[in-house]
Structures are given as structure tokens and as C-alpha cells.
Amino acid sequence: MTHLDPPAGEVNQKLVDKLAEMVRLVGALAHEIKNPLSTIQLNMELLAEDLSDEQDPRNRRALAKVRLVERECQRLTSLLEDFLNFAKARRLKLEPANLNHQVQQMLQFFAPKAKESGIEVIDYLASDLPTVLLDREAFQGALLNLVLNAQQAMPGGGALVLRTSVRGNGVALDLIDTGKGIDEEMREHIFDAFFSTKPGGSGLGLPTARKIIEAHGGQITVQSEVGRGTQFTIHLPIPPRLVSANPEPPLLPAQ
User: Computed from CA positions of residues 102, 96, 81, 234, in that sequence, does the dihedral angle turn out positive or negative?
Assistant: First the structure.
């Protein structure tokens, strides 16, 4: 009797189904952890109120310990939220959009934080940029992760350049910072889940950004030199049916 292996497509589908089930279970576990964690955090806040009399040395010592537990609870809550955002299945609502419009929206949102951080934001946006397909909300989330990553790389201030262009058969967005840069060993891992060099960082910002960009059919690459800065480049395809579509009008500058 001849043994026949199952078709490759059937094996691949089983692997996809197993992975989807694992993601669902891990997501459910994360939700279950969040519930008691919220209860602990709430009770720590109430306990802190009971220990608010700082005249008592014993209260001061106890309050310092309660505040430490509060901070750790908040860190775990943030980590769980980042993980759930990373792990969830994404069904994108792709619509015709202009990449410049998305960049301008992000710059308006980021402007106060850039000023506070001493970061000069410079944009070079191509005027003839073709229309692409974007899930605006998801893409803005990916773009925000990259901009915040650039901000964290420039703790003493610096410059952030955002540049769009037509490149090959698609459009490209370069995000260039004058931060501390990333060495070769770190560059090999920056898109790995939970890899972080920042104290308290979840290590999920860049992996989540890459996941969103790849779900758009795009790619993200990185170039960096220690001491000089880093450039992330997002490549997005231009669907043939949108080659001649009119882009959205740009946002008016903030007053």
C-alpha cells in the first residue's frame, strides 16, 4: 500500500490554522491577566490614599513600596496592550489615499512633542506622488511607532526628516533622524518581538510597525551609522488601477 503525502497547500493551511489558534489562545490569556492586574492596580491606588499621611515615617516607607508596585502594574498593563496590538489579526480596510496626506497628519500630531523634545522636523514631500491603498488608522499607528522611535533616539534633540518619492513601481517614505544610530548587531534584531534596548520598553513598536506595513503589501528597511543617525524606509506598491487616480489634497499648515 502506497503512502501518499498530503498536498503542500493542505499542510500549509493546517500550519496557518494552528498558528491562528495559538495567537487566539495567547490573546485570551493576555486578556485574563489584564483583569486581575487591573484589580491589583486599583487596590494599590486605594492603599496609597490610606498611607497619604507622610508625617509618619512608617507610612512613608510603606507608601514608597506601594508606588513601586503601582509603577510595575502600569508597566505590565502597557506591555499587555502592546502585545495584544501586535498579536491581533489585521483585516485592513484599504482605501485610495495619498501618502503625503498621512505624513502631514502625523506631523501636525507630533509637532507639540517635537517642540518639547528640541527636535526640528523637516519634510520633503514629492508633489506628484501617486495614490496608494492604505488603511489610514493602521498606517498612522505604524508611522507613529517610527516617529516615536526616532524621538527616543534623540534624547538631546536633533532633526527628523520625512521624505516621500516615487521609487521603482511604488512610493517610498524615508524617516531620517540624527540620533545615536544603531550598530550592526542590533539592526539584525530590531524587528524581533520583545527585543528592546530601552529601559522599560516592550520591544513591540517596530515589529508592530513592520507587521502593519507588510499587511499593506509593502516593506520596511533600515540603514544606520552609530553616532550619525538612522533611516527607516517604507516602500508601498502602487496598484495598477490607481496609477492615474488623483491624490487627496494636502492639509493646510497648522496656524
Answer: negative
